[in-house]
Design a protein that fits this description.
Two copies of one chain form a homodimer. Chain A is an alpha/beta fold. The first copy, chain A, is built from 14 helices and seven strands. Chain A has one domain: Type I PLP-dependent aspartate aminotransferase-like (Major domain) (Aspartate Aminotransferase, domain 2). The interface between A and B is large, with 48 and 48 residues. Chains A, B: It holds the Pfam family Aminotran_1_2.
Chain lengths: 329, 329
């Protein structure tokens, strides 16, 4: 099937590239920068790239929240991002709770690679695979009774493969649960772009910070995994992202990213594209500014349209069927 | 200090880029290939890239041996390459023998990351830190007496930091030892380019295959780790290489490379450079064909000159001092 990534904006990317040839260390306009990129081996990643990525991540969430560029850690790919965050937070034979059904890659990235146990939280098709608090609590208790040390909850929202999206209240309850039990909350929101009513954990955190209540969330326990593989279809460019609200975790995963650094060559190119205002406007709004109408694209070539096709508005589990439709575009 | 990579050929690389703009997925001539590169997520890596890399690896060894492109596994960086080969060959708390002094990164890549014990083989400055068979045998026996399960020997040749290069006879003896004791031989030859009298493990293997004797080496135990960080100074492009004579190991490390795939963008660019005959001639011979004399470079801008500065011909331990000199170029 192979259509989980957005293939509908490559024409926009190509146009952006043509507008900004100096960003490429291989194009004549930018080849003078080849050496600097070729020798750059810094897991901090170029600041201008992180700034562009932070802005993009905010845009993906409808500009309802802002991301701190200094909390962004780039890793060579989403698989590497999951493996690294698992390695840093969970010891071998400790566990992460994971709602079912879940992405089978987690077994490889976390269990086989790092030795993390995955404890399933059974979700039912009868309620569209939505995670219920009673199921989360039951799974956690069962793990404790079986002497399984649970270190966190791994949440994919929207879910892969069901497409189910959690509403804000459920997300708040989940965050309160993990906070109360002092376990980590890792949110994989790789499919989050393009849904106007999507609530991200970043918004829950923001809301909590502003409320300043006595039961404030311990932000050292909250982390986000993202990538450009879905929003942008950049599977081959290996742009995995870890965003953590914990300074210690940021520091740790940043060092661990040495095992699969995000190359400078890609930083230049992707940073240029994400900093291109014209590209961003067209990507998220579907209308180009200053481009003649006859050159505008039709047929759903932006993030919102792609994801409205991929994820059913009714959360009725039709994501697999619809992704077949998308693959024909 | 920071001069362990060859910074003397970037001008040649830039010229190659200008000659072959279509190789860049960001230059106008090549941007049409952006999508294919952006969505490529195949740990086999482009065949044309592996062909170019195999040819380059042969050139680095003076064309005295040929490499099979199908045994080349690309990983995002040398650190990742070491970690992956360690993960695949050695279980936690098992050990690798390592001649001293050794690259301190091995401790991070192998011990801390994978849980591999590093058992030192003491080498002495009195004989230029050359590995002696009696010291290798003694270290192996001591490990056995202490119930340490030794799975292999990790050899860096030329050595980092001493610069010591092993002669062919010593290398043959080492290979015979690891073969006899049924342990792996992992050769990190990242600094091997440019020394005319350098003998690589690949030549020992080749020689052994041709002799076809009754004590032939078990090739399933022999593996090479390499990268383009030193020969080409491409530290930031994260081109780590694992080359194994074992089909099982090739298959295993290839799958593991999923955690830090070598991006298609870099495959296009580096593959183009390594396939550029003019570049290869200038890099290894220091003479351009068809280029007017007034445009030829002077002052040591190719691999041989770089490494003749970096590694003392006398193996007298002056590598650190000379690398200071190189850093001023």
């Amino acid at each position: 099937m192979g259509a989980t990534g957005n293939h509908l904006c490559f024409d926009l990317v190509e146009e952006s590239q043509k507008r900004n040839p100096g960003a490429s260390i291989c194009a004549p306009e930018g080849v003078g920068g080849f050496k600097d990129a070729a020798i750059l081996q810094d897991y901090h990643v170029l600041p201008q790239f992180r700034n562009a990525m932070a802005k993009f991540m905010g845009k993906v969430r409808g500009d309802r929240v802002r991301f701190d560029p200094d909390r962004i850690v780039m890793v060579g790919g989403a698989a590497g991002a999951h493996e690294i965050i698992g390695f840093c937070l969970v010891d071998p034979d400790e566990a992460l709770l994971v709602p079912t059904s879940y992405y089978p890659g987690y077994y490889h990235y976390l269990s086989r690679r790092v030795g993390v146990k995955l404890v399933p939280i059974e979700c039912d098709s009868a309620n569209n695979f939505k995670l219920r608090m009673e199921d989360l609590e039951a799974a956690y208790e069962m793990a404790k009774q079986n002497n399984i040390q649970v270190k966190g909850l791994l949440l994919t929202n929207p879910s892969n493969p069901s497409g189910t999206i959690l509403d804000g209240d459920t997300l708040r309850s989940i965050a309160a649960f993990t906070n109360e039990n002092n376990i980590h909350l890792i949110c994989d929101d790789v499919y989050s772009a393009g849904k106007p009513d999507y609530v991200s954990i970043a918004e829950i955190v923001d809301e909590d910070r502003k409320s300043g209540g006595s039961n404030s969330l311990n932000l050292d326990l909250i982390h986000i995994v993202h990538s450009l593989s879905k929003d942008m279809g950049f599977t081959g460019l290996q742009a995995g992202i870890i965003y953590s609200y914990s300074d210690v975790v940021v520091n740790c995963v940043r060092k661990m990213s040495s095992f699969g650094l995000f190359p400078a060559q890609a930083q230049n190119v992707i940073g240029s594209v994400l900093s291109d205002e014209e590209f961003m406007v067209e990507l998220f709004l579907g209308a180009k500014t200053g481009i003649p109408a006859e050159k505008r694209r039709s047929g759903g070539r932006n993030v919102k349209r792609f994801f409205s096709l991929l994820v059913s508005d009714k959360n009725d589990g039709t994501v697999l069927f619809k992704s077949c439709l998308v693959s024909r575009y």
